[in-house]
Design goal:
Helix content is 39%, strand content 24%. It has helices at 50-58, 85-91, 108-114, 122-135, 137-141, 152-164, 182-199, 210-216, 234-238, 241-248, 259-272; strands at 11-20, 24-34, 39-43, 66-75, 78-79, 93-96, 170-174, 202-207, 219-224, 227-233. The strands form two sheets. The protein has a six-stranded mixed β-sheet with strand order 6-7-8-3-9-10, sandwiched between helices. Strands 2-1-4-5 form a four-stranded antiparallel β-sheet, with helices on one face. Strand 4 and strand 5 form a beta hairpin.
Length: 273
């Protein structure tokens, strides 16, 4: 697969295979790049392997009996696939899990402070807390409310804010639009875009909502059944008719076509014309 420009990548995933429970092959030679300060979209239907790819990078596979069995994951040129999740966070990579996963019994502010639990400098922690409230003013009004009682959109903002408290250089966002109204999705993506521009936080964004993801990303990878089947700059992917049909088109019996089937079908039409 082609890369995202000529500069050395911040993150490089190289031909990675992942196996669960020693028998189930989930990722089959996945390669991707995230440049310094970039936003990269990882697209695909449910079950394509997007979440597994993020967990392979963040080290969370081990909690689900998964492991990287081939390939390498390099952060600033050094392999990290054998490091623990806490070591990877300390390197500057933080994952925001699918489904938000806030601490429901803690207040909004206690959740945010939990994101900086490794930090020792109280002054810088306070500055970063204020920074989170600047980007997410909704959370300021809810700071004393238990996280389980705030809305789904506010929980998503809280999960991203908590990740920010660890001062990430790369944020792994897993399905941030899931279950949210379009206006809230737009608000959250605008904030993520600002964080990218103003705080130089790179983002690897796993999303089923290709339209919104490609609006904010510079580059994209399309996954299907554990493989990357296409990559390119966001505009090229947005304009790709095969991708449009893959995401929007249905077969005659109402089932989504696979990208490979769509591509084969379109190639066959061109040969016959």
């Amino acid at each position: 697969m082609s890369g995202n420009g000529t500069a050395p990548p911040l993150l490089a995933v190289n031909n990675v295979e992942v196996i669960y429970d020693h028998v189930i092959l989930v990722l089959k030679g996945v390669s991707l790049r995230v440049p310094e300060g970039g936003i990269v979209a990882l697209l695909g239907a449910n079950g394509a392997g997007k979440s597994t790819t993020l967990k392979a990078i963040s080290g969370l596979l081990r909690t689900e009996r998964g492991e990287v069995t081939k390939g390498s994951i390099d952060w600033r040129g050094s392999p990290i696939q054998r490091r623990s999740p806490s070591q990877i966070v300390q390197q500057g990579i933080v994952q925001v899990m699918e489904g938000r996963h806030v601490f429901e019994h803690l207040t909004v502010e206690e959740n945010l402070l939990a994101g900086g639990y490794t930090r020792r400098d109280a002054d810088s922690l306070k500055r970063d807390l204020d920074l989170v409230y600047t980007y997410f003013p909704r959370l300021t009004q809810r700071r004393s409310t238990r996280a389980g009682y705030v809305s789904g959109g506010e929980q998503q903002m809280l999960a991203i804010g908590r990740a920010l408290m660890a001062r990430p250089r790369l944020m792994l966002l897993d399905e941030p639009s899931m279950g949210l109204a379009p206006l809230l999705v737009a608000e959250i993506f605008e904030i993520v875009s600002r964080l990218n521009r103003e705080e130089n936080v790179a983002v690897l964004l796993a999303e089923q909502n290709a339209t919104v993801a490609l609006k904010y990303a510079q580059y994209g990878y399309v996954m299907e059944t554990g493989r990357v089947v296409l990559d390119g700059d966001a505009r090229t992917i947005s304009d790709n008719e095969d991708i449009k049909e893959f995401y929007l088109g249905l077969t005659g019996v109402g089932q989504r076509k696979s990208y490979r089937d769509v591509k084969h079908y379109r190639r066959r039409k061109r040969w016959l014309s």
